[in-house]
Design brief:
The structure holds 2 protein chains of 2 kinds.
Chain A lengths: L2 H28 L2
Chain B lengths: L1 H9 L13 H5 L3 H29 L10 H36 L7 H20 L26 H28 L12 H32 L13 H35 L6 H15 L14 H13 L1 H15 L8 H24 L1 H7 L3 H31 L5 H27 L14 H17 L1 H11 L45
The chains are: A mainly alpha, B mainly alpha.
Chain lengths: 32, 537
């Protein structure tokens, strides 16, 4: 895989991680 | 890496292209050095905006009684000073350093995602300007402290949704910056630049970037819930509706404590970069520095409730958070030991960057020790919400993060501009800062131990003397920072003369940026470097 594709894939994975953490934080608060 | 170089090879007309002309260069730039400069200049401006707010606070506290501002505006000042300094000055300054230095330190031609780099900077500007605009809205700027605790923060006037939106923008900007740092370090290192050969500054930023991605969404979630509590009749933090205001504190500090390390880990990285150069020795304990940084980052996620000892936690919870917090002293102690051991028997010289770095080691350790005092849960009941806390965290942020940012400025300014700064004025700046910062913050320990609460515009008469001393220190410290602005402008205009590529003696043995000419060309490492220096030789 060339570097440009690797960079974009890294960004997509990290954005997905950030969104998941955001949703989990709110879900956890709703379940309290 | 190779693909990026190949792409340049395919387009020969791109080889020597310089920056755009005029103002457009700074708006549409995707060059890591330009964006680094934008971040650093913006952070310096915000440092003075936040500093002006601090001087308003210290003017009001110069003597007991209400002198200059009304109490609500005073509370807005404490809140905005913190938000501007954290999100507008310290964090952007380190992102600026990351932009300038990480590609040059790892032998990469630029950051991995240059367009996103531009977008994260301009989103930061928009976020900070939106936050600043709340000062002029009906009801004033947020005044509940930078923690934005409900229910108090829900009483904010028209500014409330704008402040929340600005926090979201700042969060998105930080996450985009962090993604760029991770992608750059993972994918763009020069051949031979293994992870354990990277300069400590790059390591600490890599770990900081992961911290940012983990915590900023949590903060965004917390403030979104504040928004829905205010406008959409939810009751996340409203006891009357079945919610719990303490829940907000748990969520906020799950973000807030690692956030503190977002500001301090790159500080450690810069100190670990500067001290070996001026001690003329390799960094002592490189691997242990890397592991200690990782350990501090891990521990930052499991200690949040030490900010909340007085809310009524179960005793088992207080004991756990007390002991977990104390553990942080171990990896931090490793670092302080290693910096000291690096200097031990070194051929030291004391140029301005080294002076600021040594002051950082001494004064940050003092801030660390008061942190250890506060980790003792029963004692914290005495310290909580007093000026002792204010003294503690300012010792870890001003003579630590700010001093190291100044050290970084002096250290890399010759590389950025090609000119040497005025050493005499640099040393004057250092001594004025080092003395006045202690006049400013040390008395606040006494005030806190005597029971003076934080975030108040008026106080009992017995606190008058030390408050006056603290305010005098604040004005000396604040105005002496203008020397730095003078030095930066003077150095850009020519300073005391041209410098070599290496600038500092044998610096090129430590890190790659000293192998390129000074000033650093607009494009560096379009072909990867062949020799990989390391801080541990």
């Amino acid at each position: 895989m060339d570097t440009k594709k690797k960079n974009i894939l890294t960004a997509v994975i990290l954005i997905a991680v950030a969104l998941t953490i955001y949703v989990m934080a709110v879900m956890k608060a709703m379940s309290q | 890496m190779s693909a990026v170089v190949a792409e340049h090879d395919d387009h020969h007309d791109h080889h020597d292209h310089g920056p755009e002309k005029g103002i457009l260069r700074w708006i549409i730039t995707t060059n890591h050095k330009d964006i680094g400069t934008l971040y650093l200049v913006f952070a310096l401006i915000m440092f003075f905006v936040g500093g002006t707010m601090a001087l308003i606070i210290r003017s009001e506290l110069f003597e007991p009684g209400l002198q200059f501002v009304d109490p609500n505006f005073f509370n807005s000042m404490t809140t905005m000073h913190a938000l501007v300094m954290v999100f507008g000055a310290v964090m952007p300054a380190f992102v600026g350093l990351a932009n300038w230095m990480i590609p040059m330190m790892i032998g990469a031609p630029d950051m991995a995602l240059p367009r996103m780099n531009n977008m994260s900077f301009w989103m930061l500007v928009a976020g900070v300007l939106l936050l600043a605009s709340t000062l002029f809205m009906e009801g004033g700027a947020p005044a509940a402290g930078w923690t934005l605790y409900p229910p108090l923060v829900l009483q904010t006037g028209k500014a409330f949704p704008f402040a929340i939106f600005s926090v979201h923008m700042l969060g998105i900007s930080s996450i985009m910056g962090a993604i760029n740092v991770i992608a750059t370090i993972f994918n763009m290192r020069a051949p031979g630049m293994t992870l354990m050969k990277m300069p400590l500054f790059v390591w600490t930023w890599l770990i900081t970037a992961f911290l940012l991605i983990a915590i900023m969404p949590v903060f965004a979630g917390a403030v979104t819930m504040l928004l829905t509590d205010r406008f959409f009749d939810t009751s996340f933090f409203d006891a009357a509706g079945g919610g719990d205001p303490v829940l907000y504190q748990h969520i906020f500090w799950f973000f807030g404590h690692p956030e503190v390390y977002v500001m301090i880990l790159p500080t450690f990285g810069v100190a670990s970069t500067i001290i070996p150069v001026f001690a003329r020795k390799p960094l002592f304990g490189y691997a242990s520095m890397v592991y200690a940084t990782g350990a501090i980052a891990f521990l930052s996620f499991i200690v949040w409730a030490h900010h909340m000892f007085t809310v009524g936690l179960p005793v088992a919870g207080e004991l756990y958070f007390m002991y977990a917090t104390m553990l942080i002293a171990i990896p931090t102690g490793v670092k302080v030991f290693n910096w000291t051991a690096t200097m031990w028997k070194g051929s030291m010289t004391f140029e301005t960057p080294m002076l600021f770095s040594i002051a950082f080691v001494v004064l940050f350790t003092m801030g660390g020790f008061t942190g250890l005092m506060m980790s003792v849960a029963p004692s914290d009941f005495q310290y909580h919400d007093t000026y002792f806390i204010v003294a503690h965290f300012h010792y870890t942020l001003v003579p630590a993060s700010i001093f190291i940012l100044m050290a970084a400025g002096y250290y890399w300014l010759p590389k950025w501009t090609g000119n040497m700064y005025n050493e005499k004025i640099g040393q004057l700046h250092f001594w004025l800062s080092a003395i006045s910062v202690n006049i400013l913050f040390f008395p606040q320990h006494f005030l806190g131990l005597a029971g003076m609460p934080r975030r108040i515009p008026d106080y009992a008469i017995q606190f008058a003397d030390w408050n006056m001393v603290s305010s005098i220190g604040a004005f000396i410290y604040g105005f002496s920072q203008l020397l730095f602005v003078y030095i930066v402008i003077d150095t850009i205009r020519g300073g005391t003369g041209k410098v070599t590529a290496e600038v500092w003696e044998d610096a090129s043995k430590h890190s790659l940026e000293w192998t390129v000419p000074s000033p650093a060309p607009y494009h560096t490492f379009t072909t990867p470097p062949e020799i990989i220096p390391t801080e541990h030789f």
